[in-house]
Design goal:
Helix content of chain A: 25-40%
Number of domains of chain A: 1
Number of strands of chain A: 13
CATH class of chain A: Alpha Beta
Distance between the termini of chain A: 43 Å
Largest sheet of chain A: 9 strands, mixed
CATH architecture of chain A: 3-Layer(aba) Sandwich
Oligomer: homodimer
Strand order of the largest sheet of chain A: 5-4-1-8-9-10-11-12-13
CATH superfamily of chain A: Ribokinase
Structural class of chain A: alpha/beta
Order of helices and strands of chain A: EEEHEHEEEEHEHHEHHEEEHHH
Chain lengths: 306, 306
């Protein structure tokens, strides 16, 4: 099935305790599309870059089945740029620079072929822009997912709540779930957020894994314990990309398949953090991915007796 | 099989955002023994209290099959007392008072019958006292578990390392695992700690669950997501008690059974936090416990296809 991905395609400069990566490829839509491309080759990417963005990188995405007709390349424009520095524990980071550049004028226009994509992943963007994308869809979608962050809760909560009514799956972190719902317990927060629209809620907890809430059902996937987390940048987007790619591939949004999708997303995220930028995500094989999904099975599986 | 539990039997005064409990029953050994008593009725408790400790509470433990011959009751003495206040997120707390009282003279002497217990749970105590207990065992033990904390790493690291060489299972939290090993990655920390002695390592992460490390194998159990965490006091000891009770019941220390034991411990801990003190732990039924273990199965279970 077809997958629509909307979000940033950007440059990142990243400092971690293990090294520094200068002006490397980043952006939510980039990570989402790369992760999803291991599950489906029918992806429509919607984003905006300046003509400083390397054509070779766009060609690589195209070669993986990503349709780039919805990518606007602004002549003489500069691509979105983010710089950040991770602290020693890798769980917190400081933003050193955010240069919107061409992103300030991002007003996504969907090519005709993109409007009927059955699966839609709205990367973290202004809620009004996310809503603008939904306005252009043809209404035949099977599942619409949205990622957002505390910044939009602080500055555009009403817009966010409006777009949430139109969304099937929301991905946010634990503190954002608490802020959005006003509830400390994630169980109570999930019930509150379900009422806002999304029937599936995924709460991301970074190194502590992710929780899926659906009605009264809960599923938990740990993050894969790794000998070294090299760079967490893009892990959340890669996680979402793996989920949406898996859903587009299997075309099944029932709970049992959603669980598998989250394992697929967790596996992709575990690769993402093992190197800077897309270094690892660009060179994976299907067999590596399936072996890693099996590792999650081993880590989580137990049998009750009696 | 028989289980030996060693640790504090105490009074706690606890303040949480949900209320206050004044001088209620607490202590690691109390929580461990109560949790274990739902799995085995062959428990030997080793501790010390003053004669201010209510005889009714001791009688309740006895009624659950806990042999109290190793409990020293000091005439005119006051029992160990701890007071703490939890912050809004329930993940951090301030200690408001620690009165060692009779615990200052705790020099455990094991009655003959306790020396051959096949499973041993050394609650958090001075490492030298934990070693003193091991000295009195008859050498026929199947598994010795030890709980400790950062305080002993700060003040008695050499003693702690010595006793760890004699232990099969160590339970500590994630920060303590990092402190003990000097490694940030829990995977690398676990490998380092295995070399110190314990072939099983359980890293407790509170609301984020627990990791079991055994050689190259990893098992992860989430904490049960709850609508309300009322009071986390004793959750770690209850977790350990559930594990050790389950092991004593099943007498099987293979990895697959260790996984079940951790689920048993996680189930018991999830009950513990639902009320102050032992309020919930004293009134459980076997069917409630087995249903809760099944809930962990539902939260963690998935099937891979292809």
């Amino acid at each position: 099935m077809s997958l629509l991905t909307v979000g940033t395609v950007a440059f990142d400069t990243i400092e971690t305790p293990f090294g520094r990566a200068e002006k490397v490829i980043g952006g939510a839509c980039t990570y989402i599309s790369w992760a999803a491309s291991y599950f489906t080759h029918n992806i429509h990417l919607i984003s905006i870059v300046g003509d400083d963005f390397p054509a070779t990188e766009l060609a690589k995405l195209k070669a993986r089945g990503v349709n780039m007709d919805g990518l606007r390349i602004v002549k003489g424009g500069k691509s979105f740029f983010w710089a950040g520095k991770y602290h020693n524990n890798m769980n917190s980071r400081d933003t050193l620079a955010t240069e919107l550049n061409v992103l300030a004028d991002f007003d996504p226009v969907l090519p005709a072929a993109a409007r009927s994509c059955k699966y839609v992943m709205l990367g973290n963007l202004t809620p009004a822009i996310q809503a603008g994308v939904l306005d252009q869809l043809d209404g035949t979608q099977r599942l619409v997912a949205l990622d957002t962050m505390n910044f939009w809760m602080d500055t555009a909560m009403e817009d966010l709540k409006k777009v949430l009514q139109r969304v099937d799956l929301l991905t946010i972190n634990d503190e954002e779930a608490r802020q959005l719902s006003g509830e400390h317990s994630l169980v109570v927060a999930a019930a509150t957020i379900h009422k806002m629209g999304p029937k599936y809620l995924i709460i991301k907890k970074g190194e502590h894994g992710a929780l899926l809430f659906h009605g009264d059902e809960i599923f938990f996937a740990p993050a894969l314990p790794l000998a070294q987390v090299f760079d967490p940048t893009g892990a959340g987007d890669t996680f979402a990309g793996g989920i949406m790619g898996y859903l587009a591939k299997t075309d099944d949004t029932d709970l049992e398949n959603m669980k598998r999708a989250i394992i697929a997303g967790s596996a992709m995220a575990s690769f993402c953090v093992e190197d800077f930028s897309l270094n690892k995500l660009q060179v994976l094989t299907e067999s590596e991915i399936s072996q890693r999904m099996q590792r999650f099975k081993r880590i989580m599986h137990f049998e009750l007796v009696d």
